[in-house]
Amino acid sequence: MTGEDLYAKVMELAKRRGFFWPSYEIYGGVAGFYDFGPLGSLLKQKIIDKWRRFIVRNHSNYVVEIETPIIGPSKVYEASGHVENFTDPIVTCLKCGRKFRADHLIEEKLGIDAEGLSPEEMTRIIREHDLRCPVCGGELGEVKLFNLLFPTQIGPYEGNKGYIRPELAQGMFVAFKRVLETMRGRLPLGIAQIGRVGRNEISPRQAMMRLREFTIMEMEYFIDPEDEEGSCPFYDRVKKETLRIRPYKAKETGEPPREYTVEEAVDAGIIIHKCMAYWMVIGKRFLESLGVPPENMYFEEKGPHERAHYSSQTFDQMVKVARWGWVEVAGYSYRGDYDLSRHMKYSGQDLTVFKPYEKPKTVKVRKVILDRAIIGRTFKSEAKKILEEASKLPEEKLEAMASGREEPVIAGKRIPREAFRIVEKEVKITGRKFIPHVVEPSFGTDRIVYVAFEYAYREKAGRTILSLPRDIAPIEAGVVPLVEKDEKLRERARQLYEILVEAGYHVVYDESGSIGRRYARLDEIGVPAVFTIDYQTLEDGTVTMRDRDTWRQVRIPLEEAPTALRRFLYEAADITELGIPVEGTGED
Amino acid sequence: MTGEDLYAKVMELAKRRGFFWPSYEIYGGVAGFYDFGPLGSLLKQKIIDKWRRFIVRNHSNYVVEIETPIIGPSKVYEASGHVENFTDPIVTCLKCGRKFRADHLIEEKLGIDAEGLSPEEMTRIIREHDLRCPVCGGELGEVKLFNLLFPTQIGPYEGNKGYIRPELAQGMFVAFKRVLETMRGRLPLGIAQIGRVGRNEISPRQAMMRLREFTIMEMEYFIDPEDEEGSCPFYDRVKKETLRIRPYKAKETGEPPREYTVEEAVDAGIIIHKCMAYWMVIGKRFLESLGVPPENMYFEEKGPHERAHYSSQTFDQMVKVARWGWVEVAGYSYRGDYDLSRHMKYSGQDLTVFKPYEKPKTVKVRKVILDRAIIGRTFKSEAKKILEEASKLPEEKLEAMASGREEPVIAGKRIPREAFRIVEKEVKITGRKFIPHVVEPSFGTDRIVYVAFEYAYREKAGRTILSLPRDIAPIEAGVVPLVEKDEKLRERARQLYEILVEAGYHVVYDESGSIGRRYARLDEIGVPAVFTIDYQTLEDGTVTMRDRDTWRQVRIPLEEAPTALRRFLYEAADITELGIPVEGTGED
To answer: Most exposed of A18, A250, B266, B324 (fewest Cβ within 10 Å)?
Structure first.
C-alpha cells in the first residue's frame, strides 16, 4: 500500500466514522480549519489527558497548568516580537491577483530552498528565473512580508488593536510573576497550558498538518540559569536513555539522525541544557505511548536561520507519516530570558526572581561619599541641599565626578575635588536577583491526533481495525446482545451498559445487525473490548469479553466487567488473563 | 458579613492562592479577560468534566461531543443572524470621545429600563432628560448599534472577513449533517461542545460575571418536532421533580418564582416542551452538585423582547451571588428550526432529516396530466415538444392552468382547457422529511467556577476553609510529614506522595512550616484529605487521614490511602468510616 493509498483510507475512515473532517463543509470549506467529530473529540481529550499526566501530574510539585485568553492586546505581541517578526513571504500575481507563499512557490517550482531568505533575495530569484503565476501565467509582483497574526479589535475604540494568540507562551510569561507567587517563589517552575491558537497561514494545505487554528500543549519551564543541576531534579532518571538526534551540522553535511544517550548528547554540547534533554525524553516517551515506534521518530535541530526569533536552540520532534514523510509534532526551544526581558521592558514591571542564599553573604563595596565637613565649610547654608541632592545620585555618577570623568556639579554648585572621598563598606547580601531562563516543549495536538490515528490503522482479513493504544481509545467498551430480537438478552445488555456507564466508562450499546457486523463496526473505531450477552448469560450470569486486536474471547462473570475492563485498558492485561478462554475464537 | 465583604475576601483568596485574576495585569489589565491560575484551571477542568458526565456520558447513546473552530467565515454568521442582530446600543460623548453602553447608562443614571428599546427611542430619552457624559459632562451623540462580534480576516485576501464565534452553536449546526450520518441518521441527537467564545462587550464590568472571552458548555439537542415523547426518553424519570420557575408574566406582575413539578409546568404550558424541562432538571442537579443550595437558584423566563433573535422560549438559570445578587449561569432556549433553516438557505444544502415510517404508507394524490390524444390531435408534429415541456412544469403550475388561474400556455402554444385531465394516483411514501427542532442548554463555565468558589468559602475559628464539593476539589490530597526536619518521616511521606500520584491523583507534598500552618494552607485551597506521616507510621505503617471540613482524623494503613481517598472523594464516605478515629481531633 502506498503512502497516498494509506492516507486516502485513513481520511475516509476519519470522515465516515466521525473522527475529523474539514470545517464549514456545507459552505464549501475554509482552508486550514478542521472539526473533530464525536470520536475524534474523545480521542483528542484522551491524548490531552495523557499529556497532562506525562508533563504536569507526574511533576506536580513544580509543574502547574494555567489558562489564559486567546485574544490579547497589541502591546503583548509587540513585546513578544510577533508583530515585527511573525511573518511569511508573500507574492501576488499582477494579473489575476492570486497570492502565494513565496518561499514555497520557489521551492516547488524551481527546487531552490528559499527558507530564511529576505524578500529582496526572493524577488531577485523570481525575476532571474522568470517565475510566473502557476495559475494564470501572469507576472508576479515584489515579495512582501505578510504577518500571520489574526488581527482583531478589543472594545469599541478603533485604536485598540488585539490579536488572536499565535502561541500559548505569552500568556504564561505575562502571568509568570503571579503564578510564581502562588508557588511560593520557587524555581524550577513549569507553567503549562493547553489551548487553541491561530496562525493566519497564506495558503494552508496538507489537511491536519497545517491548520490556521489548532490546539497546542505547551510548557514554559522557568529555571535559574546558574543552577543547571537543581533545575532538572529527575535528570539522573533519564540520562542513560537514548534519543535519535540529527544536529543541524549533520543536516548540512547530509548525515542521517543517529542515536545518542542523553548524557552523551548533553556532555558533547549537542543539547545545550539538561532540561532540554529531560523534556525531550518525556516527549519521546509520550509519542511512543501513542503508538509511534521509536524508529519512526527523531529530533532535528534547527539551524540558526531556521529558528524562531526568541530561540537559542530548537529541536523539532519529527514523526514519519504516510503521505508527507517526516512532519514536526513537537518543538523544544531554549528561549533563554528573551521573553521575560522583553516584557520587563515593555511593561515596566520587575519580573526578576529573588533567590535567597542559604546564608547571607557579606561583601565589601567601594562607595563614594561627600565629606560633610568640607561641604559645610565651603557652602555654609547651602550645604544641606547639596548633601541631599548627592544622596539621590546614582553611585556611578558620584564615582565619575570623583574620578574627574564628569563635571563635579551638584545642585548647581561646583564641588571641590577634595570633598569626594572613597570609603569601603561591608554590605550584607541575602540573595541573588535574576531573570529566569526558559525551556519550552510545545506539542501540536491536532497533528498528534492524526499521527496516533494513522499509526493505529490496520487491515486484517479484509476488515479495518483501529488498533489505538487501549488507554486512548475514544470508546472504551461495547456492549452487545448476541441476538438482536431477543428482549431478554437486550435487557441484560442494557443493564451491563448502565453498570459500565456508572463506573465512568464511555460505552456504546449496539443491538442492530448481525453480531459479526457489530464486531466489525466496533473494531473499526478502535473499541478495545466488547462484552456480549448470550444465552449462557441468562443461565450462569457470565458474559464474553472480546479483544479488538486478537479477536480472542474469554468468559467472565457479568459483575466483574468494570474491573476486567480497567485491567485491560490501563494495566495492559492480556485478554487471556481476565477469564476463561472461549474455544475457537481469535479468527472470527 | 455583607455581600461586598464576602466578595472582597473571595477575590483576595482567588488571587493570592492562584485560582483566578484579571489577565494582562503587568500591562495594567484589559477589561473583560481573566486568567485561571494553577488551582482555578484544575477546578475548571473538574467542573467541565462533571458537566460532561451529566450531559454527555450519562446519555452516551444519543449525546455526543464535538469540537469546531473558534474562527468562522463571515457567511456562517450572516446565516446565523449575528452579523445583523448581535448588537448592543452605544453612545459616544461628543466632547471627550468616551463610549458607553446606552441602555446601561440610561438605566444607571435615569432609572429607566431601556432593554430592547430602539436606538432612536434611547436617543430621545437621552435628549429629553438631557443625559450627559458621566465623565466629562459633555453632550452625548446619537445612540448607534455596535456589533459584538470580534472581527478578523482569514488569509491574505482583504475581502475574506471572519469572526470569533460568539457562541458554540453554529459549529454544531454547520456540522449537523455529518454528525448525524456518523450516528446513523437517528434522532434525538444531542451535539455538545465545550469551548471559548468572544463577545466584544462595550464596557465589561462585574469581573468574572461579564467577560469578553469565556468558556461555554453547550448542547444543541436535535429532535423531531412531531415526536415529543420519543425525543425525551428519560422524561418519566424527572417528571415528579420540582423546579423553581418565574414565568415572564409573573415577572411583569411582580410575583416571585415559585415551585412547580416538571409535569405541572409542562402540562400548563409554562415550559413549552418536555425536552426543555428535562434539561432544566439536569442543569438544576448539576448546579446543586457544585454546592449551590436549591433555595438560591431559580429559572427565569425571558419576555418576548428580551429573547435572542432565534428563540421561541428561553429560561435563564439564576443563582444568587454575594455582590451582584441574581446572575444567570445557564440558559435554556427552544431554537426551533431557525438555525438549520437559515443555513439551508445560505448554503443551499439540504439539512433535513428523513425519518422512515415503520412501514411505507400508500397515499392517493391528485395529479394533473395532459391528454396525449387531444394534444396529438391538436398540435401534430409539435405535440412531442409540448408534452416534454409539460412534464418539466411543477405540479402547482399545471393545476393553476387546469383551473383557469393561469394562462394555459406551454411551449408557446395555447392548450385547450379539455386537454387538462385530473387523475388520482397511488404513491408509496417510505418516510417523512423535516427540519429538526433544537433545544439548547448552554452554561457559562467561568461564572459557574466563580459561583462554586464563592459558595465554598467558609470561615471557622478565624481561618478560611474552601469547602468545595470533594469531587471537584482541584488538589485531591495533601501529604505531609509531621515534622519538617526528620528525614525518615520525609522519606515515607514522599513514598506515599508517589503512590498517590501513580494512582492518578493530583497531590501536594508539603514539608515546610508547622503542621498547623500546613493544614491551614491546605484547608484554604480546599484539599479534602490530608495524610500525615508521623512517628507511629515508622512503627506500624499507619498514617492519619484528616477531613478538611470537620478536622477529624482517622488512622489507616498507608497502603490503603488510594482506596480510602477514592471512597472519600467519589463515594461520599464519612471520614469516620474509613479508619480508626484519632482521639481529640476535630477542633485542631
So the answer is: B324
